[in-house]
Amino acid sequence: MNRSVLVLGLSALLAVSVASAQKVNLRFSTWAGGEGLTLLQQLAQEYGAQNPNVGVTVEVTPFADYASKVAVQLASGSGPDVGWLAEQSVPTFLKSGSLKDLSALTSDPAFNLADFPISALSLWKQGKGVYGVPFSNSPQVLFYNKDLFKQAGVSTPLQQYAKGGWDYATFRSSAKTIKDKTGAFGARIMRVDTKAWNSGTLGVLWSYGGNAYDNNLKCAVNSPASVRAFQFMYDMTFKDSSVPRPGDQTTFQGGRLGMYIDNVSFSAQLKDAAFKWGVAPLPKGPAGRITQLGQAGYVVFAKSSNPSEAQAFLKFLASPAVMARTAKFFPPPRKSVLTSKAYLGSNPAIPAAELKTALVNQLGSARVFKTSDNFLRANDIFASGIERLYQPGANVGNVLNDICKGVDGL
């Protein structure tokens, strides 16, 4: 009897050991923060509960360093299995062969690829392959501090937009008035880290008729229209003192910044904000009201040791049911989700009418940032040049010429 019990015990132990040995541990990389990160961690736990033989670890890297860090990890053989990738990094990762072809997934009728607009998928296709599935199709919006606008006695961006007067001239005058009346900075156009210089900056460039690259992917930040746009931003920084200089760590969530340009997912970081805030469309420039379409997608990295399991987890994340949940922070490309009443009411911090005006209604004029396949190296030149540009007494045109010489010389 004892021998039988011993045999049964050893068999059970062996079964547990085999099951443990077969468990797959996936690494998921992201730059999410705040409640958006909390949701992703929750989804990873739910997937593990539904699939006991798979565990998912969520790894976070700040956006400014994300692409470079993941590229280094992949090159050293220590990269993640599955994760996020931003639109500007896609050409570089495609050229290096770092992404797995997901055609087997996207051709599955149950996945319903037709639910994604063709324009949303174009960036992720190469030849007959599909190398990523977008989960966020977000025009950048303008966050504004209602309390500072009230203290300064200035109409809010949404009020000025409703009257047809929301352009970059009123953006500048509003920012200066906030600075003069409250002492707080009136606006921040680009993010704190200059490596992420394109966020916010591109909306101004495009609205002035400028660009970072031309149609042949040659550097264009020194075109006449681009120079005018950068001079505008430079003057807000040094003539008006309404925009913080590079190196200044003032953030919108701290309550001492009147306006800030970012994706709607930034709202996840305002959960505990001690001030009232809202969202509005970006201002209009000489070439129109154009905002950056901040597109990001789920990808499986080609060197993953568990490609099948990684693809299955991506399928879970990109499903309509899960995308309806992540839509609270990441405007979904799936048409069935984007056009639903549930989506417009998905973020309790942003009224549905405000979200429709600031985001959904701007999709038609939003642009994706198209980059060259050496952008990881080029971005170092752009970022260092931007730091030199935003210095007292800098010659804007000369610095931009130097940037383009460096970028085109790669």
CATH topology description of the largest domain: D-Maltodextrin-Binding Protein, domain 2
Order of helices and strands: HEHEHEHHHEEEEHHHHHEEEHHHHHHH
Shape call: globular
What is the residue-mean pLDDT, rounded to a whole number? 92
User: What's the CATH architecture of the largest domain?
Assistant: 3-Layer(aba) Sandwich
Pfam families: SBP_bac_1
Keywords: Signal
InterPro entries: Bact_solute-bd_prot1, SBP
Signal peptide: 1-21
What report would you give on this structure?
Residues 1-21 form the signal peptide. This is N-Acetyl-D-glucosamine ABC transport system, sugar-binding protein. It holds the Pfam family SBP_bac_1. The protein starts with a helix and ends with a helix. It has 410 residues and is of the alpha+beta class. 44% of the residues lie in helices and 12% in strands. The protein has helices spanning 2-22, 34-50, 63-75, 90-95, 103-106, 118-121, 146-152, 157-162, 168-182, 198-207, 224-238, 307-317, 320-326, 335-338, 341-344, 352-358, 375-389, 396-408, and strands at 24-30, 54-60, 82-86, 125-126, 129-130, 133-139, 141-145, 259-262, 277-280, 293-300. A 5-stranded mixed β-sheet has the order 2-1-3-10-6. A 3-stranded antiparallel β-sheet has the order 8-7-9. The protein has a two-stranded antiparallel ribbon with strand order 4-5. It contains 18 helices and 10 strands. Strand 4 and strand 5 (129-130) form a beta hairpin. The chain folds into 2 domains: 2-138 and 294-358, Periplasmic binding protein-like II (D-Maltodextrin-Binding Protein, domain 2, 3-Layer(aba) Sandwich); 141-291 and 374-408, 3-Layer(aba) Sandwich (D-Maltodextrin-Binding Protein, domain 2), CATH 3.40.190.10. Helix 7 crosses helix 9 and helix 17 (375-389) runs antiparallel to helix 18 (396-408). The longest helix has 21 residues, at 2-22.
